[in-house]
Structures are given as C-alpha cells and as structure tokens.
C-alpha cells in the first residue's frame, strides 16, 4: 500500500467534501437572492477545482489496492453528489437569467442590454458606470 497515494486520495476526498459544502452555500445564495456572496464562492470553487486536479494527477499514477478501492468508492459518491448540486445550481442560474431577460424585454422593449458585463453603458460616447452621473 502506497501511503503517498492514499494520502493524496484522502486529501482529495477532503477537498471534494469542502466543494460539496460550497455548492450547498452557493445554492442557498441563489435561492435567497443574496448575490453578493457569489463572487467569493466562485473564486473558492476555482481554487478547489485546481487543488482537486493536482491531487487527481497524483492519484492516477498509482494502481488500485483494496484499501484504495474503499476510498475511491467514497470519492465517487462525493463526485456524484457534486454533479447533482452543480446541475441544480446551474438550473437556478438559468431560471434567474431567463427571468431577468424577460423583465428586461418587458421594461425596455428590447433584448439588447444597456450595460456591458463590466457595468458600463454600451451605446454612448461617454461611457459611465451603473449608478454614476
């Protein structure tokens, strides 16, 4: 049994558990409308994905053992939960996007947003941020 690989697998399971908790937190933010908390959550998700990827590279180079098979089953179960929560959160985001697009069309009679993703006006020579004069 290679303790380095087992440790990498155990570390990966710990990071996957943290990711699952973060997805729960993301879902609560989406459902409650507290969008200000989503940016740090997205940054933390990216950091966790990178960590998982690095640990996966270590894990893949080693053959399976009976001990690792149990850890791998635990890892697979976590991955399935993560996929489900990520899909659910994606569905909420999609519904919010459709709602916002519909509201935009009703209010302004167009599908073209007035502001860019950076928060500046699109079609004026004097660009300004949302809320600025």
Number of strand segments: 0
- Main sheet record: none
Roughly how many Å apart are the termini? 66 Å
Assign an overall shape: elongated
Rg on CA atoms, Å? 21 Å
Overall helicity = over 70%
Structural class, judged by helices and strands? mainly alpha
For this entry, give a set of tags.
single chain, 133 residues, mainly alpha, 3 helices, 0% strand
Helices and strands in order:
Layout: H1 3-32, H2 38-60, H3 66-108
Helix pairs in contact: 1-2, 1-3
How is this structure best described in words?
With 133 residues, the chain is mainly α. Helix content is 72%, strand content 0%. It contains 3 helices and no strands. Helix 1 runs antiparallel to helix 2 (38-60) and helix 1 runs parallel beside helix 3 (66-108). The longest helix has 43 residues, at 66-108. The N and C termini lie far apart (66 Å). The mean pLDDT is 81.
Brief summary:
This protein has three helices and no strands. The protein is mainly alpha-helical.
